[in-house]
Amino acid sequence: MNLDSEIEWMFPTKVAGVSHHNRDRTNRQQIIRDTCREGQRVRLIPEPNNRYDENAIGVWTEYGEQIGYLNADVARIAHDKHQVDSLVGEIIGVRGGDDGHSYGVVLRLGLRKQKEPVAGAA
User: Fold this and answer.
1) For the chain, which ranges sit under pLDDT 70?
2) CA atoms within 13 Å, Cβ hemisphere of 37
3) Which residue, 17, 20, 70, 21, is CA-closest to 42?
4) What structural domains does the chain harbor?
């Protein structure tokens, strides 16, 4: 399904923390290099018990591997507006990796459209 048909708005944002390792010691750079491609959906998972930021939202591949986090400002705004559960994301670019530089991931974010109530439904 095309992401454009189910979102209310979108904007690009870089994934933060892509050069760190995951808790299980998997290498985010290797995950990005090997599995991330333009057009792939990502799962955005809130981490309310994150010791660094209670608003943290992890970015995970469709294969269940974490590649980083949403930018802290974006995550805070989503929490402030109570829109975390409506967030959707799609990879629009994988950058870097050349000449020893780190890989980076650019997402487009949006909100799932609210379902219109069916007329006459009670």
Assistant:
1) 1-4, 9, 115-122
2) 4
3) 70
4) 3-112 (3.30.70.2330)
